[in-house]
Amino acid sequence: MSIQDPDAARATSAEAHAIGADAAADLAATLKAIADPLRLRMLSAIATSPSGETTAGELATLTAVSQPTVSHHLKVLRDVGLLTSDRRGTWVWYRVAPAYRGAVTTLLDRFAPAAIDVHGARGGGAPAAGSADAEPGSIAGLGNVDPALDRVAASLAERFTGTPERECYRVVRESYAALARRGGNAAHLVPLTEHFARQRIIDAERARAADDGHTPQVLFVCVANAGRSQLAAALLQHYAGERVVVRSAGSAPASDVHAAVRSILDELGDTAAADVVDDITRFYPKPLTDDAVRAADVVVTMGCGDACPVLPDKRYEDWIVGDPALASPAGVAAIRDELDRRVRELLASLVPDEDDLTTEGTR
């Protein structure tokens, strides 16, 4: 019997799990191309441009460097295949290469916010959920939560008599598990679960009911449900009041709403802009559910890719809007203004008999 060298075995195991050397070299070249703050800002500006393309002149407004320097950075991104370009008249237009669109969306919507959150925690902020310095239970939830969840389920079963009691219990426990997985303060999980489960039951009953004369329902979906979708939902609720039912959700919800967005939500100043009026459940990231999609008349996606199911008889819109989590204060204000405009246009299409809202400013 031969005795295998332990070091050789470990080397073989590592080789089996590592990406290939050639693939690593190609990937490193691409990562090196985007490992520059200005190039990252340019890439994000192009990817979130409403038309999906922009010019070097427009990108020059991001920095004080000269136009040739801007063109050099764009050439670096183009040389590794991230961007394509074409000349129309006197301008060269740049766009993200089709093969890279999904990857760039993942970079900007998933990797970048996570990196910024971790960097902030290491810089002295609150520890990231799940880190060694995080409070115990910040992800796993409460130790003995069953009695509290049973009380929530029983209360919902009494209120929603059209939903079987066993279904209320299932929805409550599923909701708790989904909210616990996204992290956050475990002490808030039970009230958040009650609110989220109640929303899900309402949406499920609405999807089963006849649709004659019902109030329009809009669902805003992004990746984290911590920025764009929260802000769009709050703005629509602000303008629409009870004329529209508003929901928001995330394909991979974060543990909390971005601080820059929360401050804007608070500035709206009216409780109608919130899901409910108490501080804990006013604004929080929620997982995307099939019931929310089935109950919606309009589904507005913002960078969530193919995560949102496409169902018949639904109106779908895809809004290309920057991520407030990555934006400067001026960028956050611009994103807010863009969402405000789009929301008012959407509301005017849902309640066309009302006064024209497309020129109205925020209260």
UniProtKB/TrEMBL annotation:
Please name the NCBIfam families in this protein's record: HTH_metalloreg
Describe the location of the HTH arsR-type domain by residue ranges.
19-119
Tell whether Cell wall biogenesis/degradation is among the UniProt keywords: no
Q: Name one Pfam family in it.
A: Phosphatase-like_N
Q: Which UniProt keywords apply?
A: Arsenical resistance
SMART domains for this protein = HTH_ARSR (SM00418), LMWPc (SM00226)
Q: Which SUPFAM superfamilies match?
A: Phosphotyrosine protein phosphatases I, Winged helix' DNA-binding domain
PROSITE patterns tied to this protein:
HTH_ARSR_2
* Domain of life per record: Bacteria
Q: What name does the UniProt record give this protein?
A: Metalloregulator ArsR/SmtB family transcription factor
